[in-house]
Model the fold of this input.
Amino acid sequence: MTESLSADVLAALGILVLESTATDSLTIVGTIPKWFTQLYPTVTHCLDCNWIELHSPFLANFLIDAAEFWAKDEFDCIKSGLWYEQDQADQTLYLEASALKVGSQQIVLVKASVLEDLELCSLIQTARETTLDVIEERKQTSQHILKATFYDPLTGLPNQSYFLIQLAQAFERYKQQAGYHFAILVINIDRFQSINDSFGRLAGDQLLISIAWRLKNCLGELDLFARLGGDEFIILLDPIDTISSALLTAQQISTALKYPFSLNAQELFMTASVGIAFTLMNYDRAEDLLRDANTAVNYGKSLGRDNSIVFDPAMHARSVRLLQLENDLKRALQEQELNLFYQPIVCLADQRIIGFEALVRWVHPRFGLVPPLEFIPIAEETGLIIAIDQWILKEACCRIQQWRQFTEEPLSINVNFSAQQFDNTNLVLQVRQVLQEAGIAPHHLMIEITESVLFSQDKAAVEMLHQLKALGVRLCIDDFGTGYASLQYLQQLPVDTLKIDRSFIKRMDADNLDLVRSIITLAHDLGMTVTAEGVETPVQRRFLLDLGCQEAQGHLFSHPVDGQMALQLLQSVSIQDS
Done:
């Protein structure tokens, strides 16, 4: 007997024969039984998966079990249990499905009957309710899996996996439809690590949630906004006609962040760097847009904060250069390509040199002088900054000991320490050893630390600062005024000097004057010295003197110079205004 004839015989017995296909649809084999035509008069050949979900959820639920059964390759069959459907004449049909395997064919048989037995009807109703419960449980499980797979647990936003799927679909439309364009915007929250350092990771997470939802509320309903991870977010603008739409969105992001956030009873002003990639560049792969948007945001961060940058092919050369620098930096440390330059710190009143700040410079054998703003972030990211800081400390201490014989001033040397130094439990011991080997008293060394380190509220780091102070080393807060420091917290820390950031000195307007005056007054009240960075004009020097600032450094007095030139400056009586 042929398969078609067998199906026709089963149809005559009121049994519908269906074959499962690779597309999760069911194809009708042989003659369609009369009862099925009465139920679904428009179906003549195939039941696709969407139709089954909509018109027969009980059969859809059974097919999940059937798929597991077929996968086991067993020569048996499974049954669905009973359910019922109403035909167009309001007659109740009671149905039962069976799944079996015939060779490579996956077969479903559905039998229908009209029952009058009340007890049996009650059993069917119970089975129906149980099946509905199973369907709902499977639906909830599916939703939970979907959420865990495609949504960020912290912010509730779509995650990177979901974004990449949508990006692939948008890219497919872009390749198939002439004139179709879209853009992606990678958003990196500026200086977010300093928030975690200052307030702790839990507080940082709360701030991320606030940032995420503020940004989401400033976007359109059709814009896809997702979290890539850490302090990075991403937007898909699909479709857009011109780059102007992407730039407008970037401006809306910047504007939304201008209002302060409240964190631990403090107001924080946040900014973001945005990198934009637009399909007008004729891309061949979707992932290249993501790469270029990341390149653009990194370029924007290298220029400072709060920048929105559209990708330009010239940025690729810069990315290649940075990768080359990362590979070369370790060799540079080993082969003594790093050099120290020294910028004088002067007494504002008479411009006598009272100390120097040691500043590292890198002369690359191929690229020449590499700016510190270019290689220091690489050193911090790779962890090489610890070895570089230690090398600077040794070189600077030896140099200042040599220079002290040429002056009667209590000369000091300022050395910058990265935040990573305070993860080193042997830091205090290593500093003591360097001082002993160089033969200088501890008070000739001034260690400069940024606000993010000093106000990290890490008990171990704060204790390390107290140990350095007990050793006799002096401590300075660098770039004061640019971080998130609580002024009241200052008096609890062993700080000797505040360095006012050059950005306040550069713009000596009324508002900045009041702020600088407040910082100087605060420092004096706490028994601290104040050093102004970036002093470039005699007018700035006079303003600072009038405000009570004692020390300064900047181009007015001297650029950073090599060791030989620094000694010549030291041997002069004072540095006069140039």
